[in-house]
């Protein structure tokens, strides 16, 4: 049997003793980034692919931390020897974004000015700020130019920002199930999720103790988010109108199976994610607009200098295909090398995680072409 | 200028001193129903149309209670002299459903067995139970056979139940933006709205004082519901990504306009609706399945004996068109006289309230044909 796992991996941490100027004008520092790498950086340092994670993701994209881990990293389907992100050929890097709670600097980190956790003293960050911090890591790893940046959802936004703001540092971007700017529908869903947390008396304006988080509020917020990751069709397939076997249909608190699922998913989320991080990252999603700081989206996208490969999913109603397509239309008008695929899938926003086989062959091709270009560039230079 | 208003109207109340057997097997009684009527019942009592309201609607469908009322009844666009539901020709009846809080018996009513409000002692009700109570009112008004039952959303469900369970009492039904059974998506949205209330410490398992309702929880629940009544497109048109003029973009609590709207809408709802009623009616929506108690939907719909006119709206993602269309397909297979129109509208589930002009000409025709049939029947009998 062929081993397709990267095996046992370890999260690494790097601290940057500097102050990063954020889009808001505020400074953040020092900055710690948690990251993992899989595969080997080649001699020319030209085979590095940065994987960017979604809202509640982390640096642990592949393999296991311990042999008895129940689950591998979040994109293990994609990353490993012989897989789409083939660790026999590519050097894969994944780092936890700033603002998160999975090892990188976020609202739960200690504010060096006060010696206490930032909590709401943490600055509002944008996706662009996450990318600026990733640049520090890529520099640290000695990589001048990434072969590609690839990610879904908030990961797609990071890929886009890399392409626009660091065009000389990347040979290709692969935004999956993303958008050029979030819609008022997505903002509205985040708004009610936020309010669910604000309503929880344990939240205390962000000053909860880590051991006493606003569990009910966060679980509800997550359940709201979770609905938006699914689709009408995927819920019909998965739950239909099945009623909980233990409950009476006419019990006031009786639940349909879909309710049990959301409640379970919400509760288990509380154990693995920090509430304030959830809020800060939701804010970053709401604020996301690739045109931020430019006169227009055209002006922003004019800066994109590398080939890009985009995917949207028919049943994704959180970031519906039109949000990607309006970006594609601009790129085509600007004559940029762009490839776009609308993937038919029933699994809503989560389609990119549920049915990767529907789009990954295109990714394999795209990366091979980028690698060929990179190798040609080295030969040309040499 | 032509007067198209029904003018000043008064809500009437009728009490039925009986015990209604509910679908759950429990008994509910005595039952008070709040209702309004507009127009005049003709000599043959053949021109009565029952208007059935949605989730948070009430008996006050048209006109004003006081000359200085800021707003008329909820379907005033539709009801009045010369309007679609023409009070010069038809006798319009609208009653508040049981389980609600607008004058009909609901969880805030006094339980005669305890002398205290029912609160969670109120039985879980189904849409079919609401209709059974309406039958009492129609009997009380001396109407053997309604010309039509017409309503949107939960009102559509009531119209369907009238057609299936009281086929001899109705000449036509007009279900608008309804469904034959709610989807797991709709249930999931209600589940998180419910949880928003359950999480509010003021809810006290339904035993809050009316003057101290769980305002934060109810406002949030309403905001969640409200999102599902809109559409991606209608939010783009109405709010886009406009940010609140008073807030800083990088304020943690800064809001987009869509957030202000939802917050305002949620808060104002608290003043006009009872929390437990909201929960009981949400439950009735979740439980709605026209096949309940039958072997199949075919068996249920076989009982429908009158012409029916159905509307669904392209952008309605709460009760998407396919939910109506699967009912239409069965009716057509059964050879029932059915007319269905899919209306192109951007306004989501609320389209039926926002753009009535897109479907009302079909309603006018349908009602005229029913009236002609009724008159012919009288002549035939006479």
Automatic annotation (TrEMBL), chains A, B:
It comes from the Bacteria. GO terms for biological process: homoserine metabolic process; methionine biosynthetic process. One of its GO terms (molecular function) is homoserine O-acetyltransferase activity. It is found in: Cytoplasm. Its main location: cytoplasm. It catalyses: L-homoserine + acetyl-CoA = O-acetyl-L-homoserine + CoA. GO terms for cellular component: cytoplasm. InterPro entries: AB_hydrolase_1, AB_hydrolase_fold, HAT_MetX-like. The active site is at residues 153, 316, 349. Residues 49-356 form the AB hydrolase-1 domain. The keyword Acyltransferase applies. Substrate binds at residues 222, 350. It is an enzyme of class 2 (transferase). The keyword DNA-binding does not apply. Its EC number is 2.3.1.31. Keywords: Acyltransferase, Amino-acid biosynthesis, Cytoplasm, Methionine biosynthesis, Transferase. Pathway: Amino-acid biosynthesis; L-methionine biosynthesis via de novo pathway; O-acetyl-L-homoserine from L-homoserine: step 1/1. Homodimer. Transfers an acetyl group from acetyl-CoA to L-homoserine, forming acetyl-L-homoserine. Belongs to the AB hydrolase superfamily. MetX family. This is Homoserine O-acetyltransferase. It comes from Geothermobacter ehrlichii.
